[in-house]
């Protein structure tokens, strides 16, 4: 999708206002920004009618000289957008001299749709041409298409030349007619009071959008009421730039947030009494409860499962595992491979004994819930008995401090701030206890995603101070984790703006903030920015002190099987120094089948 910010006369003849509009357009994600130009003298011959007088005065008051427009066009280009301009007669282009070639595209306004001399002259400059079709009949529009279809790079915009266009006057299905008349891109030039109309145009096949941008849509300018203010324009660009992603494919894919929600909101079978080996699962020994940690009656019927091959303790979710024989531990060659490469797998306290039995490797990372952290103060010894203290550990701080609150040790809300600091302090207490008992350092990782109101750099500097005080001053480093742009929080998608962008890379390098680099998150965040994640990696790897490794694709395909995403060959990262945690999405299920598959894949490649 190409969204063009039409600056028109909303700059009121002020380069300062024009610069503000350009900045808004760039931050919103517009593809381009454009000017309208009429020579200062002689454009209006007759101004006797009231409409002529109003328009003539507006144009005169909004005049910006060609030299200033060129400077502003360069600013547009410096901000990563295409710079365009409209002319109503080709003679006015002479005011720009040879610099006319600096523009990236030209627009022919609706009023000049049949001005073939203007169109062919602009096309002769060798840049893309956009034709707007407002105020013309079907026959006129089709004639214009026939006369201009041979232009190498031309687009046609459906347009209603009212200012503003009221709901009901859009005739949006005409976009389908345009698509049948030309193979060129088609779009929509919006003068609507309601910017959301552009979304309907997108659904009807428009791919190029022109929308007037103003700093105040309630202003006194004649275009203000048919324009978008910065907030509206930002929303428009956000939705249209995401249009293809929103459309997706004809196939229905389940995203990770849905999987989490189906687990949390769904129900499954739990043992209401102990079920012995050889017993059949029945209504007499099970009860249906949430969350969906195991199988449903439908799953049992579909898979023809009945008699368990492992005991099911009372209160345990009935799962696939109970219908299989116990799984053997990882083989000695793969254990040696993991320990040589310092590979680690995530554990929860509740599944630590099972996974440590199946994966007798040296390194593990504890992924703690806020409830587990809350119990550490009074039950440290009980929790430590769940762990093999001959292993080496790292700790992942929970993302939440309770069921409704993300961790934020800098929050203006006292309850959130103090609760977050308490969670961090408890994790540091556990790290110091583990270090004393295992003889190995216990680094801590955390996801911190809440910006302070005074901007990014102050946020990072403050976070660095907080983590140094809470961790390093007690002898335990706490590394903020690189994050995806789209995070699955509270059962939905949250768009983050911290540890996930090119500007964040600049800041963490400037202040020397050491990180946990999650390669899966890095790929997702770079994909969101439509940038090269490997270039980002080059800038971040020198700051990385702890590594999470998994493959990823798209903007939310996290932790997928190696070779199925954008990571490529993982071995260069496996061969590096330090611990590397295999962050395989739901790798812990079925006693760690996902982790074993990843380890076998990596070990086999290494051979």
Describe the structure.
With 607 residues, this protein is α/β, with parallel strands linked by helices. Helix 1 runs parallel beside helix 3 and helix 1 runs parallel beside helix 8. Strands 1-2-3-4-5-6-7-8 form an eight-stranded parallel β-barrel, surrounded by six helices.
Shape: elongated
Strand share of the residues? 15-25%
**Which percent range fits the helix content?**
25-40%
Strand order of the largest sheet: 1-2-3-4-5-6-7-8
Give a count of the beta strands, DSSP E runs of length 2 or more: 24
Termini Cα gap: 46 Å
Class from helix and strand fractions: alpha/beta
* Gyration radius, rounded: 31 Å
Give a summary of the structure in a few sentences.
The chain has an eight-stranded parallel barrel with strand order 1-2-3-4-5-6-7-8, surrounded by six helices. The chain is 38% helix and 17% strand.
Structure keywords:
607 residues; alpha/beta; eight-stranded parallel beta barrel; eight-stranded parallel β-sheet; 21 helices
Layout of helices and strands, plus pairs?
Elements: E1 2-8, H1 15-28, E2 32-37, H2 50-61, H3 66-78, E3 82-87, E4 105-108, H4 116-123, E5 129-132, H5 138-148, E6 154-159, H6 174-181, E7 186-190, H7 197-203, E8 208-212, H8 230-241, H9 243-247, H10 256-265, E9 268-271, E10 286-289, H11 297-303, H12 332-341, E11 343-347, H13 352-358, E12 363-367, H14 370-384, E13 392-396, E14 400-402, E15 405-406, H15 414-438, E16 444-446, H16 456-470, E17 478-480, E18 486-489, E19 492-495, H17 502-511, E20 515-518, H18 519-528, H19 533-540, E21 544-549, E22 551-553, E23 557-560, H20 571-574, E24 580-582, H21 589-606
Parallel strand pairs: 1-2, 1-8, 2-3, 3-4, 4-5, 5-6, 6-7, 7-8, 11-12, 11-24, 12-13, 13-16, 16-17, 20-21, 21-24
Antiparallel strand pairs: 9-10, 14-15, 18-19, 22-23
């Amino acid at each position: 999708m190409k969204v063009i910010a039409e600056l028109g006369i909303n700059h009121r003849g002020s380069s300062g206002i024009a610069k503000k509009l350009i900045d808004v357009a760039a931050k919103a994600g517009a593809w381009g920004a454009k000017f309208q130009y009429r020579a200062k003298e002689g454009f209006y011959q007759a101004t006797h009618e009231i409409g002529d007088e109003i328009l003539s005065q507006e144009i005169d008051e909004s005049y910006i000289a060609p030299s200033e427009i060129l400077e502003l066009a360069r600013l547009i280009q410096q901000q990563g957008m295409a710079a365009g301009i409209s002319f109503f007669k080709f003679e006015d282009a002479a005011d720009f001299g040879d610099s006319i070639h600096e523009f990236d595209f030209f627009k022919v306004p609706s009023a000049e749709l049949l001005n073939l001399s203007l169109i062919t002259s602009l096309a002769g400059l060798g840049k893309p041409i956009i034709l707007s079709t407002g105020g013309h009949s079907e026959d006129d529009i089709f004639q214009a298409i026939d006369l201009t279809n041979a232009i190498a790079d031309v687009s046609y915009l459906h347009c209603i030349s009212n200012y503003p266009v009221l709901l009901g006057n859009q005739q949006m299905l005409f976009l389908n007619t345009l698509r049948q008349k030309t193979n060129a891109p088609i779009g929509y030039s919006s003068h609507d009071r309601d910017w959301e109309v552009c979304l309907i145009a997108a659904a009807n096949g428009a791919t190029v959008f022109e929308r007037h941008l103003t700093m105040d849509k309630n202003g006194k300018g004649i275009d203000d009421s048919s324009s978008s203010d910065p907030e509206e324009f930002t929303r428009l660009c956000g939705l249209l730039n995401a249009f293809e992603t929103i459309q997706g494919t004809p196939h229905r894919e389940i995203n990770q947030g849905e999987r989490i929600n189906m687990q949390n909101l769904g129900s499954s079978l739990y043992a209401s009494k102990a079920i012995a080996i050889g017993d059949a699962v029945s209504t007499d020994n099970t009860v249906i409860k949430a969350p969906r940690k195991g199988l449903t009656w439908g799953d049992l019927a579909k898979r023809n499962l009945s008699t368990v091959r492992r005991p099911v303790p009372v209160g345990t979710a009935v799962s696939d595992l109970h219908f299989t024989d116990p799984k053997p531990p990882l083989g000695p060659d793969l254990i040696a491979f993991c320990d040589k490469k310092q590979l680690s797998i995530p554990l929860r306290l509740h599944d630590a004994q099972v996974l440590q039995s199946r994966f007798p490797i040296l390194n593990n990372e504890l992924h703690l819930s806020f409830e587990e952290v809350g119990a550490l103060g009074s039950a440290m010894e009980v929790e430590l008995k769940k762990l093999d203290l001959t292993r080496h550990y790292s700790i992942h701080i929970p993302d939440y401090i309770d069921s409704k609150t993300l961790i934020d040790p800098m929050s203006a809300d006292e309850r959130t701030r103090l609760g977050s600091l308490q969670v961090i302090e408890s994790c540091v207490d556990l790290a110091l206890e583990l270090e004393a008992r295992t003889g190995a350092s216990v680094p801590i990782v955390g996801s911190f995603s809440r910006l302070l109101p005074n901007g990014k750099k102050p946020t990072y500097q403050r976070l660095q101070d907080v983590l140094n005080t809470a961790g390093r001053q007690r002898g335990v480093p706490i590394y903020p984790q690189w994050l995806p742009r789209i995070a699955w929080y509270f059962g939905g998608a949250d768009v983050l703006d911290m540890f996930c962008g090119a500007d964040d890379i600049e800041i963490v390098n400037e202040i020397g903030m050491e990180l946990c680099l999650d390669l899966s998150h890095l790929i997702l965040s770079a994909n969101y920015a439509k940038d090269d994640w490997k270039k980002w990696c080059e800038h971040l790897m020198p700051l990385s002190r702890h590594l999470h490794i998994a493959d990823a694709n798209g903007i939310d395909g996290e932790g997928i099987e190696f070779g199925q995403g954008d990571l490529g060959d993982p071995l260069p990262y496996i061969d590096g120094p330090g611990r590397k945690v295999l962050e395989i999405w739901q790798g812990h299920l079925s006693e760690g089948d996902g982790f074993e598959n990843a380890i076998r894949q990596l070990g086999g490649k290494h051979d």
